[in-house]
Amino acid sequence: MAERKRQAAEKRGRKGEWFAALYLQAKGYRILDRRVRTPMGEVDLIARRGDLIAFVEVKYRRDVQIAAGAVTPASWQRIARAADFWMARHPSLADCGWRYDLIALAPGKLPQHLQDAWRPGLA
User: Fold this and answer.
1) How far is CA 7 from CA 4, 15, 20, 96, 117, in A?
2) Could you tell me which residue, 122 or 94, shows the higher pLDDT?
3) What is the CATH number of the domain that holds 89?
4) Which of 67, 69, 85, 121 has the largest CB neighbor count within 10 A?
5) Is residue 85 included in any domain, yes or no?
6) How many structural domains are present in the chain?
7) Residue 6: pLDDT band by 50, 70, 90 thresholds?
8) Burial, 16: exposed, middle or buried (Cβ in 10 Å; 0-12, 13-18, 19+)?
9) Is residue 101 assigned to a domain?
């Protein structure tokens, strides 16, 4: 039973990430990478618009506000370490600025894109 719930959550998460990527593309972003796993942590989406790289966490919940509040400070720190790791392996992007975004999704609602949702050193 627990395995089935985990698989259902994984499927919802993948669907949410796919929809978030589509949403970002419609806003003029180019998706550079998806579901990035590093020894330091993971990032759902890495997108670029102009000279800005956005490391995007995607949360899909029954309500957009619940989704927006679902990322803990510890999660952001893991995402930041993964972003450092990823950027170190992409020196051609060294001149780009970067930030941490959140896309909150819920069934039947428009996505909420929180740009610059978190900064290292802030709780």
Assistant:
1) 5, 12, 20, 36, 28
2) 94
3) 3.40.1350.10
4) 67
5) yes
6) 1
7) confident
8) buried
9) yes
Cα-flanking dihedrals φ and ψ of residue 89, to 5°?
Answer: -95, 5
41-89: pLDDT as tens digits = 999 999 999 999 999 999 999 988 888 888 988 999 999 999 999 999 9
State the Cα–Cα distance between residues 77 and 58, nearest whole angstrom.
Answer: 15
Decide if 123 is inside a domain.
no
